[in-house]
Amino acid sequence: AEPRTPESVPPALCCFSSCSSWLPQRVPLRGSHWQSSLLGFRTSLPVRAQPKKKKKVDVKKEQAQKERMKKKLKKLERAAPELIPIEDFITPLKYTESSRSRSLPDLSPEESERRVLLLKKWCVFKQKQDEAEKKAIKALVESQQEALKELQLESEELYQAAILRDEGLFPFEREGPTYTPPLPGYDPPEGKCVDITKVYTQ
Amino acid sequence: DALLASHRSYRSRPTHGIGRFKYLLPKEAPKRRKEKVQMKEISAGTEYQYGDINIQMTSYDLCLVEHFAQYVHRLCNRLSIRVNESYAMPTKTNEVLFLEERGSKMQLDAVLTTHQRVVQIRGLSSTFAPILLEIIQSSQPEGVHLLMKQHTEADFKSRLKARPELEELLAEMS
């Protein structure tokens, strides 16, 4: 805050010099408008408190803290991430009690005979269903291959374009069929859904 | 054991190593350490083949969704489509509350559990994809919601446990 040359002194200083007559002599005049404190050049108020804490200790402390955090981070990162346990596969303890066993009644020979014959009919039914599915798949694939062959004979360009994968196919979403369609004009009661899934943290 | 702890070997003696027997036992396989859960590479697929695709089946009914997942898995095996993984996503529990007719209190209606199974396939050819979709749709059971999408890292991360401490530290560091 050295006093500036007279050329750079703004005209405001002129009024300072003019009203300097009513100022008490004890207060030192401000050398220039750059010197913001009333004290002289390179002086400061005497402080009775502790001497100012040196910056070195702070830097060291900060560095030590940072290192500690880095160590903690490394330790956590080294631990492998775990999969969330699936509640479906954990049998609740109340089902493992021995008092839950029940004794089944004895079957008569006619009943067991009926059951075996029913089982055989079910096997045959399922086999027919499976075969029908396999036939359907085969028919679909064959007809597709035939169509592609014809297309290739027709034009090579279109065939190449048809072979390429469809980007718009995925994502594909479909709701399962329902037993009954939604009722028209049904007014459901007011309510809300609360998610109470257990949140697992590592 | 006393045998192993003994430091008196007397290698010069003819009876050295007289009590050894472990070399006679059959070699037991080394103990498998817990395998780290690591993400497998996600293939992008070529022009004529799709990469990793997730077939996600969601429903409130556990048995239906399990059996459907098994059916889809067996179907892919039969059609020689490579199945990478077949896993279950964690179950979500929802509490349904409804407002009573005469009253302001919410009453508990039911507790519903949503189950999800995922079958991950790779290398599905572009010509066969619509056929597979058709077959799966025709055998879709009631109430089972089907979703087929590309596999991403975010899908894998959703299976892992949340680590709030790690995230906190990372946020503090940066």
Could you outline the blueprint of secondary structure elements for this entry?
The complex is a heterodimer of chains A (202) and B (174).
Chain A: H1 12-18, H2 55-78, H3 109-154, H4 156-163, E1 172-174, E2 191-195
Chain B: H1 2-5, E1 49-50, E2 53-59, H2 62-78, E3 82-99, E4 106-122, E5 124-125, H3 129-138, E6 145-150, H4 153-157, H5 164-173
Antiparallel strand pairs in B: 1-5, 2-4, 2-6, 3-4
Keywords (chain B): Mitochondrion, Ribonucleoprotein, Ribosomal protein, Transit peptide
Subcellular location (chain B): Mitochondrion
Family (chain B): Belongs to the mitochondrion-specific ribosomal protein mL48 family.
Describe the protein's architecture and organization:
The complex is a heterodimer of chains A (202) and B (174). Chain A is mainly alpha-helical and 202 residues long. Chain A has a domain at 129-165. Helix content of chain A is 42%, strand content 4%. In chain A, α3 packs antiparallel against α4. Chain A is elongated, with a radius of gyration of 45 Å. The two termini of chain A are 59 Å apart. Residues 6-20 of chain A have low confidence and may be disordered. Chain B is 26% helix and 30% strand. Chain B has a domain at 53-161: Ribosomal protein S10 (Alpha-Beta Plaits). In chain B, the strands form two sheets. Chain B has a four-stranded antiparallel β-sheet, with helices on one face. The radius of gyration of chain B is 28 Å and the shape is extended. Chain B has helices spanning 2-5, 62-78, 129-138, 153-157, 164-173; strands at 49-50, 53-59, 82-99, 106-122, 124-125, 145-150. The longest helix of chain B is centred in the middle third of the chain and has 17 residues, at 62-78. In chain B, β3 and β4 (106-122) form a beta hairpin. Chain B contains five helices and six strands, in the order αββαβββαβαα. The interface between A and B is large, with 52 and 62 residues.
